Amino acid sequence: MFDYETLKFIWWGLIGFLFIGFAVTDGMDMGVGGLLPFVAKKDVESRVVINTVGAHWDGNQVWLITAGASLFAAWPLVYATAFSGFYFAMMLTLFSLFLRPLAFDYRSKIESEKWRTNWDKALFVGSMVPPLVFGVAFGNLLQGVPFGFDSLMRVTYTGSFFALFTPFTLLTGVISVCMMLLHGSTWLVLRTDADVAQRSANIGRIVAVVLAITFALAGVMVWQSVDGYSVVTTIDTMGQAQPTTKEVSTGSGVWLTNFAENPILWLVPLTGVFMPLVAAFLLGIKNKNTSVKTTALLASSLTIAGVILTAGIAMFPFVMPSSSQPNHSLLMWDTVSSEGTLGLMLMVVAVFTPIILGYTFWCYRKMWRTVTIEEIEQNNHTAY
Amino acid sequence: MISETLVELSRWQFAVTALFHFLFVPLTLGLTWILFIMESVYVMTGREIYRDMTKFWGKLFGINFAIGVATGLTMEFEFGTNWSYYSHYVGDVFGAPLAIEGLMAFFLESTFVGMFFLGWDRLSKRQHLIGTFLMALGTNLSALWILIANGWMQNPIGSEFNYMTMRMELVSFSEIIFNPVAQVKFIHTVAGGYVAGSMFVLSISSYYLLKGRDVAFAKRSFSVAAGFGLAAILSVILLGDESGYEVGEVQRVKLAAIEAEYHTEPAPAAFTLVGLPDDEAMETRYAVKIPYALGIIATRSLDEEVIGLRDLQKAHEPRIRNGMIAYEYLTKLRNGEETPENIARFNETKHDLGYGLLLKRYTNNVVDATEEQIQQAVKDSIPPVAPVFWAFRVMVGCGVVMLILFVLAFYFNARREIESKPWLLKSLFFALPLPWIAIETGWFVAEFGRQPWAISEVLPTFLSTSDLAVGDVLFSLIAFIVVYTILFIIEMYLMVKFARLGPSSLHTGRYHFEKTPELTSGLRSQNS
Asked: What are phi and psi of B420, to 5 degrees?
C-alpha cells in the first residue's frame, strides 16, 4: 500500500494529530477545570461549569490514552525513553490525573460544602498540572534531553527532575497552560450564560494575549538562544529503526531551518500567534451571538493546532534529540516500529477514526444546550 | 548489571498498581451487562422499577467506574516509566493491541458512559438503551484487547526477533489475535468479571431482603443477578483456562507449578489436592492426591502425560547453553560483523536467545558464564512453586463456594422462596469478597507463574526494567501505596454509604427511607 518511508511520515502526522486531538478535546476539559475557581463563585455555578463537560470528559480523556498507546505502538523508543527519562514529571502528571475522574464523579454525590470545595481544588490541580508538565516536556524536547543507548539499545537517562526546569521550558509550560485556559474559556462562553460566561470571556481575553506574547517570545528564543539539531549524515529513510548509526550536529537557530527552506510553513507559527488574538477579539464582543462564540472556539482550536505543529515542524525530523549523545537522537525515521506494525495500525486508525468522530459528534449534539443555573437547580439529584 | 533491588521494587510497584486497578475492572465488566439487562426489561415492559434498578445500580457502578478509570491511567504510563527496556523490546508487537484497545474499546466505553449517566432526559428510551449496550460492549472489547496483549506475553507467537533493531517485531497479527492462550484467558477473565458483578448485586440485594427494605426492588435485582451469575460461574469453571496451559513451554511450567508436580507422572496424572511444595528438594510433601484428575483437567484425555518440573527444568539447560551461542553471534552482528555466516549461526540459535539472557542476571557478558552461573540460571528458569500452588487453590476454593451459592440462589429464587431463607441471604451477604479474592489470586497465578519471564522465553523480567535509581522507584511505590489507600477509603466510603441507602438515593419518593421522612430526614438531606 505505502512504502516504509511514507508510512513513517504518515505516522509522524498521526501522532501529531492525536496530540492535537488530545489538546482540543481533553485539553478543553482541563481548561474548564483550571478556570473553575475563577469563574464560579458559588456551588451552583461550579456545577454549571462542570456539567458543560460532564457527559464528555471521559470520552475526551481517551485521546490522552490513545495518544500514549499510539506512541507505544508506533514510536516505542520515544515512549520508553521519554516516559522513563521524565520519571518524576510523569508520576506527577499521573497522580494529578487521578484526581479528575474522581472529582467529576464524586463531587456531587454529597451535599457538603467542604466535600465539594475540596473536589473543586482536586479538579483544579488535576486540570492544570498535566498541561504544565506537558508544556515543560515539549520545551525539553526542543532543548534536547540527556540520554543514550548501550549496544543492546538499553536507554540510560542522565538528567534530573529539577534540570527539566529552565527559563525556556517554563515558558513553554506557560504557553501550554494558557492554551488550555483559552480553550476552556471559549467553551464556557459557548455553553454557559450570565456571570459564568462573562467571567470566562474576561479571563479568556487575558490568557489569549499572554499566549500570543509568550508564544512569540518562545519563537525568538528558539531563534536566538536554544540550539537546534540537524543530521549531518544521509538518512536512510527507508531503513530499519537504528537510531544510533547517524551523526548529528547542533547549532543556534537550526530549529528554524525547515521554515527557512519552506516559507509557506511560516503560516503555522503565524496561526499560533494570531489565532489567540482573534479569539481575544471575539471574546471581547458584547452580546455575542452563537456564530461569534463558535468562531472563538474554532480560533482557540486552531491556536492549539498551530502551536503544537510549530514545535513538530521546527524539530522535524527529530522527535527527541539527545543533548548528551546527539548521535543517539530519535528521529521520526529511525525510532519507529516495523513496517508491518505501522501499516496495520494505519488501517486500524483509518477504519476507527471516522467511527469515533461520528459517535462523538452525535453525543455532543444530543447533549448540546446552554447549561444554566435554573437547569442545575431543577436536576439537583441527577446532574453532576 | 541491573540492581536486584530495583527489579524487586519495580515488580512490587507493577503488582500493587495492577492488582489495585483490577479490583475495579471486573465489577465494571459484570455490572455493565447487568445494567443492560435491567434497562432492556425497562424498555420492553415500561415498568418504572426497572428504570430505578438501572439507575441505582448504575450509581454504584459509577462510583466504581471513576476509580477504575483513574487507576487505569497508571497502567498506560507504567510500561514506559518503569519497564522501558520491555517497551522498546516488544513495543512493536505489544503496543499495537494497546493502541487498538484505545481506538476500538475505550472511546466507545467512555463516550457512552457519559450518555448513561447524564443522557436519561436527552435521549429516547431506545437510544439510551443502545448507549448502555455500547458502553458494555466497549468495556468487554477492552478486556479482549488487553488479554490479547497479555496472551502474547504468555505465549509469544506471530513475531520474530530482529537483531538490527534489537527487538521483537510483528510477523502475523492474526496469529496474535487467535492465540489460543489469549482466547481462553479472555473468556475466563470476562466471565470472572460477570461473577463479580452478579455477586455484588446479589449480596447487596440480600442485605435489603434481610432488612425487609425495598423488597420488590431487591427481589427483582436478586433475580437478574442470580440468573446471570449462575451462567457466569459455570462459564468460569467449565471454560477455565486450563486448556491454555497446554500451549507453550512457560504455560506448561506454570501448570506443573500449580500442581506442584515435580516428577512427571504416567498418564493420567493425579491431582494434588493439598500438600507442601519444597523447591529445594523438588518434592511435594504430605500430598493428598485425587487419582486421574489432573490428567483429565489438563490434557482432556487419559493417555497424555503432564510433564513435571524436574524434567521441564532439565530441558532448559541445553537451551541456556544454546542461548549463550545466540548471544555471542548477536554481539558480533551488533558490532558490525554482519557476515552471512554470522547471520546464519545467529538465526539457527536465536530462538534460545531469551534463555541466554537469563544469564545476564549473573554476568553482563553472558558468553563467559561459569558452570555455576549456568546452573543458577537453570534453577531460575521456573517460578517458586508454593505461592502459585496455594494461590490457585484459594482461587478454585472461592469458585466452588460461589458455584454452590449461585446454584442455591437460583434454585430458591425460581421457587420464590428466597425471602424465607435467611441463612442463604446471610451467606450471600458475607460472600461478597469471594469474587475479588478469586480474581486477584487468579491474576497472581497467571503472572507470577510466568516468572522468570516478562515475555515467555523471550525477555526475562529482570532485564525489562527502566534504568532508574532505586530511590526513585521506592519513592513512587510509597506514593502509590499512600495515594491508592486514600482513594480506596474515599471510594469505599461512598460505596457503603449508597449501598446502605439503597434506591432511596434516587429521590423518586418511592423507596424505604423516603416513606418515613420524620425518621430519616437527616440522612436524606445529606445525599444526592
From this structure: -90, 15
Bond into B277 cis (ω within 30): no
Which chain B residues have a beta carbon less than 8 Å from that of A122?
Answer: none
Interface with B, mutate which of A102, A240, A361 (most B CBs under 10 A): A102
Residue B284 gets the label, from left (phi > 0), alpha (psi -120 to 50) or beta, of beta
Interacting residues of A46 by C-beta distance below 8 A, sequence separation 6+: A36, A40, A116, A120
For every residue of chain A, which 3-state class applies, written as one string? CCCHHHHHHHHHHHHHHHHHHHHHHHHHHHHHHHHHHHHCCCHHHHHHHHHHHCCCHHHHHHHHHHHHHHHHHHCHHHHHHHHHHCHHHHHHHHHHHHHHHHHHHHHHHECCHHHHHHHHHHHHHHHHHHHHHHHHHHHHHHHCECEEECCCCCEEECCCCHHHCCHHHHHHHHHHHHHHHHHHHHHHHHHECHHHHHHHHHHHHHHHHHHHHHHHHHHHHHHHCCEEEEECCCCCCCCCCCCCCCCEEEEECHHHHHHHHCHHHHHHHHHHHHHHHHHHHHHHCCCCCHHHHHHHHHHHHHHHHHHHHHHHHHHCCEEECECCCHHHCEECCCCCCCHHHHHHHHHHHHHHHHHHHHHHHHHHHHHCCCECHHHHHHCCCCCC
Using an 8 Å Cβ cutoff, are B244 and B253 in contact? no
**Grid coordinates belonging to A133:** 508538565
Burial of B434: CB neighbours in 10 Å, binned 0-12, 13-18, 19+: buried
Task: Report which DSSP code applies to B304.
Answer: P
A153-168 residue pLDDT tens: 999 999 999 999 999 9
Q: Which of A217, A253, A229 is nearest to A324 (CA)?
A: A229
Chain A hits for B112, CB-CB cut-off 8 Å, are: 359, 363
Name which of B21, B7, B6, B17 is nearest B380 in CA terms: B7
- Measured between alpha carbons, how far is A27 from A57 in angstroms, rounded to an integer? 10
Per-residue model confidence as pLDDT tens for chain B (528 residues):
789 999 999 999 999 999 999 999 999 999 999 999 999 999 999 999 999 999 999 999 999 999 999 999 999 999 999 999 999 999 999 999 999 999 999 999 999 999 999 999 999 999 999 999 999 999 999 999 999 999 999 999 999 999 999 999 999 999 999 998 898 899 999 999 999 999 999 999 999 999 999 999 999 999 999 999 999 999 998 877 565 666 677 788 888 888 888 888 877 778 888 888 888 888 888 888 887 777 776 666 667 777 889 999 999 999 999 999 999 999 999 998 999 999 999 999 999 999 999 999 999 899 999 999 999 999 999 999 999 999 999 998 999 999 999 999 999 999 999 989 999 999 999 999 999 999 999 999 999 999 999 999 999 999 999 999 999 999 999 999 999 999 999 999 999 999 999 999 888 888 888 875 544 444 444 444
Residues of B in contact with A98 (CB under 8 A): 70-71, 73, 483, 487
Cα end-to-end span (Å), chain B: 56
Dihedral pair phi/psi, residue B162, rounded to 5°:
-115, 115
Which chain A positions have a beta carbon within 8 Å of B167's beta carbon? 76, 153
Alpha-carbon span B433 to B194, nearest angstrom: 14
Measured between alpha carbons, how far is A380 from B282 in angstroms, rounded to an integer?
65
Q: Is B133 on the interface with A (CB under 8 A)?
A: no
Return d(Cα A196, Cα B47) in angstroms, integer.
Answer: 40
On the CB side of B522, CA atoms within 13 Å amount to: 1
Beta strand spans in B109-204 (E)? 159-162, 167-170
The three grid cell numbers given for residue B243, joined into one nine-digit string: 486448556
CB-based contact B467 A154, cutoff 8 Å:
yes
